């Protein structure tokens, strides 16, 4: 130890320990640099000390200590200054003597430090051998700095490096935490504002880990109620949809694909609502950890779809099957009859007197007549049969699985009697009756259009033969 150094070994260790503790407890890099500069000044009995931070290939200084307090020092020096260039290139401590020839600091920035005979310059090196900062000590009170002084300050610079690295890591951790908190807050705001339920569940959906507050507005369950009973989700699925949905869950797990299903779920008030449930697997380090999903209420869409389907297949006035659905049902009856060697009948019906009602009593009376006729037709056939309106006052009926003409004749007689009975809104002078033609499968024809044509021809024979009667197709 230099002769001028007045601290013994225990005092040295005490100063180092105190400096180390305070630097590691510091909340930012500026505090670390201030502690290091003050400690170095105390260790070396220097007249002044400063610490500069390496930023953008320059050393930035904000203050220096002169033993009585801290003075402002606002300057940045780069490689254009000789001692800074040596420090950046070599990253080794060194002494600058006779600095009056070229002061470390311009007299404009630090007049008190410009008149200095010796400066000890010590770099602060980071983990990646990068220059983080530097320590400057200006003149000893007694004598000059020597090699042992340089070694002591180098040790302090090493401690300073660790503390600065810790501050950088702490600052980065804080930034990450702040970013995460912002992300979580943004996600929570988004989740709580979208008109859908978001949830997190185990991969097999046996447990719901999180569910958003929208579960209360959509299903009537509070978050706590839903999470407390882990069977709630499965129990609330409509019985007709449950097996299908659970099968989709199993398939998505087995094939490692996103889960997607549309199904009905029972709300707390007992109403069933249609939902679209979509979930994807969240992975971490190539390992599946949980499902994250969204549930949308699609009840209005399903209702619209149902209305569109009904409009596409059913007559809007009578509620009966329309021509398109009648053809589809007839194709089904043909397929079943061929497969199981069954017989069925196609009936073609036309109202007698409908035009007179329409012309004399108006279209509203005609519409009421058609609607009431539809009701009388459906009430005189079985649920397995099909009644359709082909247009205007023409109707068709499919009587499935009939065994003989007598069976068909009994039904046609009931229908004619029912339709020909008086109508409350139609006066007796406008009597309405029914003309009907019948074609049998397979006796009369084995093709759809042929059966319809055969029944139509038989209907015209009934109409030409006096109306209010039924004629079977004459195969001969």
Secondary-structure blueprint of this entry?
Layout: H1 9-25, H2 29-44, E1 46-55, E2 58-65, E3 70-77, H3 82-90, E4 94-97, H4 111-114, E5 118-125, E6 131-140, H5 147-193, E7 197-201, E8 208-211, H6 214-219, H7 223-228, H8 232-236, H9 239-255, E9 259-266, E10 272-284, E11 287-297, H10 299-313, H11 323-340, E12 344-352, H12 354-361, H13 363-378, E13 386-391, E14 394-399, H14 405-420, E15 433-441, H15 448-464, E16 470-472
Parallel strand pairs: 15-16
Antiparallel strand pairs: 1-2, 1-6, 2-3, 4-5, 5-6, 7-8, 7-11, 9-10, 10-11, 12-14, 12-15, 13-14
Structural commentary:
There is one protein chain. With 476 residues, the protein is an alpha+beta fold. The protein has three domains: 9-171, Beta-Lactamase; 197-300, 2-Layer Sandwich (Beta-Lactamase); 314-472, Alpha-Beta Plaits (2-Layer Sandwich), CATH 3.30.70. The protein contains 15 helices and 16 strands. It has a six-stranded antiparallel beta sheet with strand order 3-2-1-6-5-4, with helices on both faces. Strand 7 and strand 8 (208-211) form a beta hairpin. The longest helix is centred in the middle third of the chain and has 47 residues, at 147-193. It is rod-shaped, with a radius of gyration of 48 Å.
CATH fold annotation of the largest domain: Beta-Lactamase
Query: Rg from C-alpha positions?
Result: 48 Å
Measured as a percent range, the helix fraction is 40-55%
- CATH architect. name of the largest domain: 2-Layer Sandwich
Shape: rod-shaped
How many structural domains does the protein architecture include?
3
* Number of helices, where a helix is a run of at least 4 consecutive DSSP H or I residues: 15
The CATH superfamily of the largest domain bears the name GAF domain
Q: SS-based structural class?
A: alpha+beta
**Secondary structure: number of strands:** 16
* Low-confidence residue ranges: 1-7
Mean pLDDT reading:
88
CATH class of the largest domain reads Alpha Beta
- Main beta-sheet annotation: 6 strands, antiparallel
> How far is the first residue's CA from the last residue's CA?
134 Å
Q: Tell me what portion of residues adopts beta-strand conformation.
A: 25-35%
Strand order of the largest sheet: 3-2-1-6-5-4
